[in-house]
Structures are given as structure tokens and as C-alpha cells.
């Protein structure tokens, strides 16, 4: 029996769509395409205390340090940098692809959030994701930007990371 992650209906083995709600259970490759819905709550994840600088200079880059992963992601943010996970059934590829970090298992949507560049700041925006985006423990209201600071904790679904601002001298 295969249980639907959306309606919890027990389906016959081998079905591709939930017999109750019609949700896709597997793609041709066997990978689920929809975002896995996770239980709400922090699951023991605590917000950090303290504030870093909100100033982001034009020559800076961002470093995204994923919890429990030794290799950070360093990127020069565009006007809008999309965070999400790649899915072969969708033509959209996020700028920051969290698939190698267990994105599906952590409830990351394909197009989950965005980092938007201002004149001297960065803003984090949830793009209507299923499992939400949290900034320092506070859930973001979809499509309402919040200022990012150096060292902030971002939770994308249940995937926890910290963002750092890196300048040439840093």
C-alpha cells in the first residue's frame, strides 16, 4: 500500500495517482514531483539571537551555509535570486538549487523563496511555498519582503541555513 502524503489515503501498490484526491504519487523516474507536506512547528529548531549588519555592498557576495553540510554555497545575488529545488518535470530551475541537500525530504518547493537585491540591502520573500519560509524563527507572510542581515538564520521548509555577506576583504 502507498499512502498519499496529501490526503493520507491508502492506495494500491503501483498506482501513479492517489485514488482519492488525484495527487501525483510518482513520476516516470519514481521521484515524487510535488512538495512533501511536513508537520507544522519548529521541530526543535531555535532561532538565533543577535543582529548582523543589513548593509549589503554592491561588490559583496552571499554565502549560504546549509546546516550539517561542510560545503557552503557562494553566489553573487542577481536582482532576484530564486531558491528552490530542481524537478525534471518542470522547466523552471531555481538560481540556488537545494536538491543536493535533501530539498524534497525537507519540504522545499520547486520555487520556494527569493532573495531580492535593493540598493544596499537584500530582502527575503516567500513565494507562496507549501511549507513556508522562516527568518530567525519567524514565518514569513508570502510575497512580503523582509530585510536580510549578515548571519541570519533562514529555514526553507525544514532545511536550515545561515546567510553571510562576504566582501573582498572578508
UniProtKB/TrEMBL annotation:
This is FHA domain-containing protein. Residues 81-140 form the FHA domain. InterPro entries: Cell_Proc_Reg/RNA_Proc, FHA_dom, SMAD_FHA_dom_sf, Znf_ribbon. Gene3D superfamilies: 2.60.200.20.
